[in-house]
Amino acid sequence: MHTTSLPPDSLAYALLLAARAVAAVFSGKSLSEALAAHAGELPPTRASAQDLAYGALRRYGFGDAILSALLARPLAAPEIRALLLCALYRLETRPDAAHTVVDQTVEAAGQIAHGNFRGLVNGVLRNYLRQQAVLIPGLAGDEAIYRHPAWWVDRLRHAYPDRWVQIVEAGNGQPSMTLRVNQRRGSRDAYLQKLVDAGISASPVGQSGILLAQPQPVDALPGFFDGLVSVQDCGAQRAAELLDVSDGQRVLDACAAPGGKAAHLLELADLKLTALEVDARRSRRIDENLARLGLASKIKITDCRQVKRWWDGIPFDRILADVPCSASGVVRRHPDSKWLRRENDIGGFIRVQRQILEALWPTLVPGGKLLYATCSVFPEENNRQVAAFVAARPEAALLVEEQLLPQEDHDGFYYALLQKTG
Known about the structure:
Distance between the termini: 59 Å
Shape: globular
CATH class of the largest domain: Alpha Beta
Order of helices and strands: HHHHHHHHHHEHEEEHEHEHEHEHHEHEE
CATH superfamily of the largest domain: Vaccinia Virus protein VP39
């Protein structure tokens, strides 16, 4: 909440909130968690702070390279560094308001470290405005040019020699906003008409998705709180579509939070669905999402790898294994992940993914199907992981494999549909 002398609807206050959120990311928090601390702020200020924080982190490597060129030595104050990164993003996107941005950033700096950095902030930003025509073309390095860590770019170059630039550019862009129509509550055509009536431009995408021309707050979406639609990326909607469910089946969603894919499955058929989630706090999101949509499932807070703790011994007809991963396919939606991740984290994800596959496979009925899913574009987590699993099991058949790379209307996802043949 507002605890400073800054006006709560000012750009200076939004910059301060954004700086605190970005500094929290530097300390290891996720950006969504950091921004949740500002849920009680005025909606316009909260939206502005969110835009500043996301923008600063999408271009972090670029902004950090500029600061390195402008500062004699690294800043010891994380919130001031974060504030300058937010201000540089604002100056890049609103060059017509440069004077106001500098003035408001200095005002925000007055609320940090007893105001001791006001002069430094003022000097750095004014130097940037004077030198940017020469400074920017001289920047070098993957972090500055591509706004991704160097190791990340190297992996993309190796995996996608002809497409890595497009993947990087997509990761630096603004994410689209896609809805999933709840087919139990109405048709896509009917909901498209509701959007027309509300003055919201949209178009159909995928089997049951709707792509909005411009992102909207959920309270502006007709019938959102009545469960008519959910916000879900078109690429993420492929999971339920591929799993091929039908009425009466026993279905397991092994890594279920926040519940979007589980909800989609329940919208498609009357299922006996069990949702597992290791994080108790995140499991509450499953409850909330299902309740809004008028759906229900059995939810267990447990590690899906500890099968003896949760399985009753009755095999499942379908299993969704939406496994933990690098999130390298959704960085435009979660730009903090680029900078929180380290290259050696990938090996840890690969081990957990393998353990989940090995734990869940025995719980699948013969003839049943398991969908392995990630929001990654790194082959080590995707096709290589699945190829090794299938090669070691003669009863495992790969039916479908899809690698969706991030583009304008969807993020990056990988899916492999396996069937137990024996």
